[in-house]
Amino acid sequence: MNKRQDVERIRRALDASLSGLQDDPWLAQRVVAAAKGEKKVKKKISVGLAVALVLAILAATALAVGMTRYFSSFAALENTYGEYEQWPGSAKVELVQTMRESELLSQAQAKGWDKAQSEREKEKLAEQILGDYFERLVNVDTYNVMLQQLGQFEDWPQEEKALYSSLLIEYGVQKDDWPVYLMPEQGDMQQDEAIQAAREILCEKFMANERIKAANARATFLQNAMEYGEAPVWIVELTEPNLFSGAYRVILERSGEVRSYDAPGTLPYTAGKEEDIPADAEIVQPGEYDLSYEEIERIAWDSIREIGDFETRMQRMTLDAVFLYDERYNDGCEPVWLVSFKENGAQVYRMLFGYDGAYIDGAFEGCEFERTARDDWEIDAKFDLDFAYYTVEEKAAFTQKWKPLVDAYCQSHPYYPNYNSFWYKATRQVYGVPGDGDISQEEATRIAKEALMEEGLREETMDDRRIAYTFDVTDPEQPIWKLMLYPVPFEARDDASPVSDHYSYQVIIDGETGSVLHIYCNSDMSPDRKITIFNM
Amino acid sequence: MDANKGQDGGRERAFTALVERYQTGLRRVCYAILKDEEAANDAVQETFLKAYRAMDSLREEDSEKAWLTRIAVNTCRDMRRSAWFRRVDRRVTIEDLPLASDAPSEENAELALAILRLPRKLREAVLLYYYQDLTLRETAQALGVSTGTASKRIRSAHARLRDLLEGRGFCE
Closest-CA residue in chain A for B131? Predict the structure, then answer.
């Protein structure tokens, strides 16, 4: 098993098991706010290191032919004999021989090789030489052997990526959903041309020309049927050297035709097909929270005055504005005003505003918006996210403290609920504590366990389940107990454990009468499997 | 427009993109090191605060992910040293995992728990080398050890997880 497979296996396990950790949508804003006023440190460039990198690239290029032979040889041996640890001595002798002929081993590294006479001597020596050579490799396989020589995968030139793919295909390791890296054929666009074409279309479509010209480019030619269809494409990414703004990206057909392009943070724009008003956009009438057409018109005229020489041309210009929802703008959660300026009937400029007139971006005719979402939210509070483990008293206190704050925030930010954030969801219920006439927590626990046992759950492990409690008084006339019974811990399971031991169950109980209203399960078979901490 | 304000705006947008891209992975790494959701959230915030202050010191040859992971590991180590942190029992069971809307499969939960139960040094090595997919050199740098030592830790951790990684040892 190679590193790539282990990476995927481990990622799958940790991502699935830790998916309950909630991201913080305001993290960047809070950090920036906290860091404001800090003194900036100037970047130092190490000339020595830059020279060393160039020399390393030159050395790698000089070795390319021998290296190709070495990689192919390794992959062939791996295919024949399986894991490196299982290889017979003769295979290791063959590999050392290839490495010597490919000039990958220095005299010192291969010391004694020429003097070894018998096969047994050579096998012993090969074991030692390869042991030293691969000492730092965690897994000795084709992928890691190539990584050892070529460095990080993303930095490999196209030839090396193509070689890697061809080895995987030749030896039957390639998976259907893995990209196949290819060398462009005669008649295909070549790498330099792809980068050049990408820069040109980006400079044409976005206004940050200087940044795009200075950006570092990486172009990859690949076939990935699931993502891009059967035909191979060029994917060119341009990243700014000193910023972390993400990449500008262009996808080109093998012929060189631009398929799509995007700026950091925007959805891809389809070349030649983008319309001013997206086809799927939902045009709406401004409501009580939104600026009216007349108000946005006034703001737009004021704004265009400051751009280029438009002030001198305004007499000849007209304006049109549309209020719409579209997934391109604010993730479709919040409408925008899309304003189009025309001069003598032809569009010359577009502007994008929030529902309240907040400026988002502007673009000359033929250009695209580079910024498509407002980023001026703030809710200056940090929630405790450890919600599932709160007691009913703590949850009640949470409601008392945070619900009014979030409700007030929603008043001043009317589209906030559409984003369906943690903060919003966590404050939609009213949490309380049971009163004198209500079922107590102990009674609710007993009722829940009995109900689950009636459903067939094991009594023996019932008490091993951890329980989270919520007393929901959103409807004060009908308080509700919500008990979440977590899976039986590993330690308490045995070979006879039924599948129900692996699942969480939520039992909803009438807070006054004690009757069971619902039982939910998060098993894959259950239609009600979507249990979250917010409906607890 | 005020030129400095424009520069700051660009820097902030860039930083926001950085946070959006890496906060999920870093939060999971911090949780796996600290085994505490609240502490992990604090560590992620602290990591990005340090990153924001030091954005200019990121060298071109460094990958953003490796750089941020290095900061996060060191931040977690600082937090682990606190007296409060040392007093808390941090043995993990499946019900201690942050509640997800969909329960992880048995296979995934078992491997995740096995990773969380590795000794700290081996756990950090697995998280960096496999979960964050850093190179051996980057992993060694982040852990502050030689590549030889990092390699040894990864090998040792891999040996402990071998059965689970290869699909053996799961409850059916």
Answer: A11
